């Protein structure tokens, strides 16, 4: 009896567990561009284009390799509009009753497949380094699930940057040498930009017609949409950008959107690259002496550390994780996140770049848009849906822990040991944004003071009960308590003014 083999838009890997187990001569691969997947949030048009183009090219490759592929394009008249609907339709067409699938990266789809009126065999997604079981075993009995310890286990497991049982360079973590302030200029041209071929052009026309009203600019579109292109992007970064990745990992510049970042998250997350091959390429550069340990260790930690760790947390914590709201924040997401007018240069740059590129780097996501949302008390679920929609690399397993946990502290500190909040001083240190801002970063209160400066203290003050005993935040509360009372009152009322303006839809 033949089976269907489901391949989702973020499972474009030749060695996917479902494909490995399937019978090329008897089974039918099902791939479908469906309304349900394009509408659970209003994805950025570039993200939809990336997924559809990469799906079409992957399907063509599978066919070339001898697979029978039943591929449904978005505009096909028979399109059932959902993954399960498409499976049912194809099952009837080919007379199959069973489906072989690799576990999706989102609870919503896992449940849809589990409760589908078809026999679905779900296989582990073994494109990751740690299985669910390994993460659960690591987490069991620990009071705190700190990434650093998990990461060391992943180093031991993979042997990456290991000399026997010791870390290369005698230290597990070289962050102390990293995170330098922004340089005046950047000598890396950034990512490769791939010219649209016929398939991409066709998809761009479709996306423009169907999703042109979503937030985000579709053209120019240059993301890697095949494994071959993704490998070129990776090697371009390893050869030209990696050596300064660590130094300027947290820097932000008005005129440089990509700095020394790799731009490989889209390729990794849809399956065009595997985490181990990416890390091995970076480790090889260290072995050859073409990139220093602080850069290579920092880069590898993001992938076998953070990326694996957030996935572990998403599946460990369960289906309601994205609904958490430990700080009880309930302000509506302000219009500035959708490109509304703002006088804050950092927000304008981070959101503007997000709109044009469907990309912002980690510190823009964490310390500009994330920091502002947390300080302003925005409903974390709305923040989560925004991140899930606007970034081309956003899939819930990776986005939700980063947003709900790391950025918004809505999981009550599972991921972050203290909230990632800062005044304007941090942004000023790490960027040149403040130099051209309408607000003054050095001004603490009054007309023209940087909104981050007053909102920062407002956040600490309103959450005193929760955070004042946190050992890592004691200094902040001591500084606040040392201010004279009149000053504290002015700070709080200035902050309230900013919040009132946000609520009234006025420009901040
Ligand atoms: P680089 O800076 O070059 O880093 C290399 C790789 O490390 C990335 O490609 C990525 O695969 C991995 N990585 C780095 N940091 C993280 C992290 N915190 N979690 C997981 N992987 C990481 N990353 C996503 O892939 N998808 C998301 O939806 C996503 N949402 C985020 C939301 C918020 C609020 C924050 C603060 C971070 C989020 N990140 C997300 C993490 C990080 O911002 C992106 O992985 C990174 O910016 C991707 O760009 P890059 O490929 O140039 O990464
Ligand atoms: C994100 C996305 C989009 C926009 N469209 C599709 C699609 O049409 N078909 C598909 O198979 N997958 C799509 N995806 C990716 C899925 O949403 C993703 O597989 C789940 O969110 C699980 O990670
Ligand atoms: Fe952002 Fe404040 Fe700097 Fe303006 S002054 S760019 S609002 S941190």
Tell me about this structure.
The protein is mainly α and about 500 residues long. Helix content is about 50%, strand content about 5%. It has 21 helices and seven strands. It has helices at about 15-20, 35-40, 45-65, 85-95, 105-115, 130-140, 145-160, 200-210, 225-240, 265-270, 275-290, 295-315, 345-355, 360-375, 380-390, 395-405, 425-430, 450-460, 465, 475-480, 485-505, and strands at about 5, 30, 70, 100, 120-125, 160-165, 165. It has a five-stranded parallel β-sheet, sandwiched between helices. It is globular. Bound molecules: flavin-adenine dinucleotide, ligand DLZ and iron/sulfur cluster.
What topology does this entry show?
Layout: E1 4-6, H1 17-21, E2 28-32, H2 35-39, H3 45-64, E3 68-72, H4 83-94, E4 98-102, H5 107-114, E5 119-123, H6 132-139, H7 147-158, E6 162-163, E7 166-167, H8 198-211, H9 227-240, H10 265-270, H11 275-288, H12 293-317, H13 345-357, H14 362-375, H15 380-390, H16 396-407, H17 424-430, H18 451-462, H19 464-467, H20 474-482, H21 485-503
Parallel strand pairs: 1-2, 1-4, 2-3, 4-5
Antiparallel strand pairs: 6-7
Bound molecules: flavin-adenine dinucleotide, ligand DLZ and iron/sulfur cluster.
């Amino acid at each position: 009896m033949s089976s269907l083999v489901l391949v989702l838009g973020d499972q474009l890997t030749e060695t996917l567990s479902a494909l490995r187990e399937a019978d090329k001569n008897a089974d039918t691969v099902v791939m479908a561009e469906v309304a349900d997947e394009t509408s659970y949030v209003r994805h950025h048009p570039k993200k939809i284009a990336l997924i559809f183009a990469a799906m079409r090219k992957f399907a063509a490759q599978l066919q070339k390799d001898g697979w029978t592929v039943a591929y449904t394009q978005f505009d096909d008249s028979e399109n059932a509009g959902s993954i399960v609907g498409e499976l049912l339709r194809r099952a009837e067409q080919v007379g199959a009753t069973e489906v072989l699938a690799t576990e999706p990266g989102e609870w919503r789809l896992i449940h849809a497949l589990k409760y589908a009126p078809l026999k679905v065999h779900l296989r582990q997604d073994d494109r990751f380094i740690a299985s669910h079981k390994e993460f659960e075993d690591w987490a069991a009995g620990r009071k705190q699930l700190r990434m650093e310890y998990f990461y060391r286990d992943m180093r031991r497991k993979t042997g990456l940057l290991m000399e026997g049982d010791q870390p290369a360079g005698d230290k597990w973590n070289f962050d102390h040498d990293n995170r330098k302030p922004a340089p005046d200029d950047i000598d890396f041209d950034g990512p490769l930009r791939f010219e649209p071929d016929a398939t991409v052009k066709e998809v761009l026309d479709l996306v423009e017609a169907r999703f042109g009203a979503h937030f985000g600019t579709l053209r120019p579109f240059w993301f890697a949409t095949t494994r071959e292109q993704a490998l070129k992007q990776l090697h371009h970064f390893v050869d030209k950008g990696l050596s300064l990745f660590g130094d300027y990992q947290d820097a932000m510049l008005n005129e440089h959107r990509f700095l020394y970042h790799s731009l490989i998250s889209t390729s990794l997350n849809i399956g065009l690259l595997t985490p181990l091959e990416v890390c091995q390429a970076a480790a090889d550069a260290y072995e050859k002496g073409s990139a220093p340990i602080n850069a290579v260790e920092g880069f590898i930690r993001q992938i076998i550390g953070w990326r694996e760790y957030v996935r572990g947390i998403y599946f460990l914590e369960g289906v309601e994780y994205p609904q958490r709201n430990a700080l009880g924040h309930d302000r509506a997401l302000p219009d500035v996140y959708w490109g509304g007018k703002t006088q804050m240069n950092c927000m304008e740059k981070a959101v503007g770049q997000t709109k044009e590129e469907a990309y912002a780097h980690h510190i823009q996501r964490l310390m500009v848009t994330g920091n502002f949302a947390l300080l302003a008390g925005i409903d974390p679920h709305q923040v989560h849906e925004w991140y899930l929609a606007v970034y081309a690399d956003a899939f819930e397993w990776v986005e939700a822990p980063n947003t709900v946990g790391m950025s918004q502290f809505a999981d009550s500190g599972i991921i972050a040991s203290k909230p990632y909040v800062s005044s304007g001083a941090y942004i000023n240190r790490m960027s040149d944004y403040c130099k051209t801002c309408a607000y003054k970063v050095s001004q603490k209160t009054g007309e023209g003071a940087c909104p981050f400066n007053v909102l920062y203290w407002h956040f600490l003050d309103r959450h005193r009960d929760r955070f004042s005993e946190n050992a890592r935040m004691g200094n902040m509360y001591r500084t606040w308590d040392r201010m004279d009372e009149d000053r504290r009152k002015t700070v709080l009322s200035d902050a309230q003014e900013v919040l009132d303006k946000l609520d009234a839809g006025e420009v901040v």
